[in-house]
Design brief:
Rossmann fold; single chain; alpha+beta; D-amino Acid Aminotransferase, Chain A, domain 1; 8-stranded antiparallel sheet; 4-stranded antiparallel sheet; 13 helices
Length: 461
Amino acid sequence: MPLQPRTLILFDYDWDALGHAHAAQAQGLALDRSGFDLFTFPSNARLAWFDMGRYVETLVQRARLRGWQAVASHHEQFGALAAALLAERMGWPGTPVNAILACQHKLYARQVLQRVAPEANVPFELLDAEYGAPIPSGLDYPRFVKPVKAAFSVLARRVDNHAELHRHTRFGAWELWVIRRLVEPFERMVRERLGADVPSAHRMLLEAPVQAEQFNLDGYVFNGETKAIGVVDAIMYPGTQAFMRHQLPTRLAPAVQARALDVARRFLAAVGFTHGLFNMEFFFDAATDRLTVIEFNPRMASQYSDLYQRVLGVDLHAMGLALAHGRDPAALPRAVPTAGAAASFVYRAFDPAQRVHLPDAGQTRAFARAYPDALLFPYPKSAGSIARDYKWLGSYRYGITHLGGRDEADLRARCEAASALLGWVAPYAEFPPSSIDPIPATAPSAPAVTVLQPSIHTASS
């Protein structure tokens, strides 16, 4: 048995892998990892036989042998739920299992929100049709349709008529198999924990569409007290629901941030969320002074961790590790901020016929030399994967960069210059999506550097 207690991290990829490695090194923690990458072969072949209960039971058997004393995960599809189940079995600090299920079951969450904060809810109903079944007539349009259980905004979109909804819910045999395998582990836990009266997660949810600016409230609950960390602005490509960039500091007024926190407190208390990090996505319409919840994520929004570090000196991954060990994140030291503004910039294409140019080795080296503080995530894909992205997400996300600046103006200037080095159009200009066409750029050579290669390939981000 190892002398040093260890922390288990589940489904630790992309931003989480980077963040946990940094936080563990800073705190002198030893980490073990378990899980598989859903979007990289052959790792994702494990989806065919994955069983949540059996997986957690295996971890229980290994826990004492490995000396694990805590578990953490910010993975939406399987990790957060598996971590909650393991923490419950081992008597470790963790988010209650039923709270995870209540947040991730989009219909159940809407029903709870209607009871405790109806002013922040939207009209909603369950689509009375199984995947691939005929769409009922008589529905009102437009509607925003999304799976009752999903991740990465897959299959979430606005539909304006019966024909669009019909097309959106047609799936091939392989697509249906993937969807069902992704949802079934969650469905089994819902049946066991929330009861047979809760509608199946193998369904779609219809909501009244909202046109307003989008924001994210990040926070945590410790000893039953809900605390805010900050708010990130989510800025869309004009005329779409696709993220163009995520930016700190927020432009949202403090009074509206306080209202968002009040809604979060009521909802989280109602579902028994007594411990852990959370993220609440919401709209705010300044013209009507209306705040509307999109959904609750019972985990950290990992893409934002780097932004909070740059602007506030707050390490969300360190906070997650502290919570996993039952420690108050408020006691963690803050670093000196390195930027007055920071953003996660999302580069995407909307036309399947559009040529997308990924940076070559020379451009990548030039980018790293000019912006040593930046993160670069290119997303090369096969033709089949790109076609699936267009069908399920409406666009192909081919890259992400993270940058900081002295202020918002400096951040934009740095992004535009960095994007030019990569041959990409900076995610700022107000243009129609069809006109976006990355242009290759040449760049001088520079010393070799490591480029981050995240493995999740379908996130809308």
